[in-house]
């Protein structure tokens, strides 16, 4: 990871890097980001999944790590744990979900408790107070994770998540302009030379960014996902805002009259994909959006 420990966003935080599983001879990493604190009790947990179209990205890719999430952790003496996972197209979406389920089991293991207890700043996790977060493809994983562990996760957040991977949007070439400066042949060329036995679970920009763009804009991402199993100020060029609106409407319908059904929040803001990366926590709209989730997380 080079000098990520010295990145300005991580100033004052303690970073513990480890591996939570191994597939063949390929280890998959998870990172604990621990804000300084005099608090000595068990600390609430934020499980954060990185974005990148399930094709690129890394748990510590600081260009895509929202500053408000780091500030939220610091404000509430919380520990962020951010796992990597196998990436498309070398791996499949079922394998990605297998990874995050193995991560969940590992997070609750004695291995993690011992790792944190013997670190230079001994830390205990409060695994009864877990909030999930994720951006873009990480938002999809955050939502799926929260649904799979609804009795154990206190609250789930997601920013511009790609929640409808079966939609035609991810299966057909986009008609919007401008198109990315990436040839339409990029996906086919990559697949033709790809080592199908290889495993990738980390990619730092610009690695694989062109592949992600090509898959998104020319319709390959939907197929990748299924294998094996700025005219408008709110126009997201990567994931349409309508997907979030449709998902939230369905969630509210299903949860009507049930506990938590009145706490499904959707906030629309001006800006393209990734607009919130440098947004500080004290922004009024952000605090208002997070209020219900934070209260449920910490109660």
TrEMBL record:
Gene3D superfamilies: alpha/beta hydrolase. The keyword Acetylation does not apply. The keyword Magnesium does not apply. Keywords: Hydrolase. InterPro entries: AB_hydrolase_3, AB_hydrolase_fold, GDXG_lipolytic_enzyme. It holds the Pfam family Abhydrolase_3. GO terms for molecular function: hydrolase activity. Residues 46-202 form the Alpha/beta hydrolase fold-3 domain. This is Alpha/beta hydrolase fold-3 domain-containing protein.
């Amino acid at each position: 990871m080079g000098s990520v420990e010295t990145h300005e966003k991580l100033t004052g935080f303690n970073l513990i890097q480890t591996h939570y599983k191994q597939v063949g001879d390929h280890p998959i990493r998870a990172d604990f980001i621990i804000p300084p604190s005099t608090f000595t009790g068990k600390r609430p947990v934020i499980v954060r999944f990185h974005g990148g179209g399930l094709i690129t990205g890394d748990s510590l890719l600081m260009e895509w790590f929202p500053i408000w999430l780091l500030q939220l952790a610091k404000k509430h003496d919380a520990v962020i744990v951010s796992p990597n996972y196998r990436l498309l197209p070398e791996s499949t979406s079922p394998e990605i979900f297998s990874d995050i389920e193995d991560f969940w089991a590992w997070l609750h293991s004695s291995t993690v408790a011992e790792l944190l207890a013997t670190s230079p700043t001994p830390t205990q996790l409060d695994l009864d107070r877990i909030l999930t977060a994720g951006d873009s493809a990480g938002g999809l994983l955050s939502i799926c994770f929260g649904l799979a562990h609804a009795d154990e996760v206190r609250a789930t957040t997601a920013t511009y998540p790609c929640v409808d991977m079966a939609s035609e949007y991810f299966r057909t070439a986009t008609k919007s302009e401008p198109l990315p400066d990436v040839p339409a042949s990029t996906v086919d060329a990559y697949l033709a030379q790809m080592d199908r036995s290889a495993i990738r679970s980390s990619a730092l920009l610009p690695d694989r960014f062109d592949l992600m763009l090509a898959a998104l804009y020319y319709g390959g991402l939907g197929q990748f996902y299924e294998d094996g199993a700025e005219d408008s100020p709110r126009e997201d060029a990567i994931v349409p805002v309508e997907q979030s609106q449709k998902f939230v409407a369905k969630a509210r319908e299903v949860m009507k009259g049930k506990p938590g059904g009145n706490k499904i929040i959707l906030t629309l803001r001006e800006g393209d994909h990734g607009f919130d990366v440098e947004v500080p926590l004290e922004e009024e709209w952000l605090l208002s959006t997070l209020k219900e989730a934070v209260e449920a997380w910490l109660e």
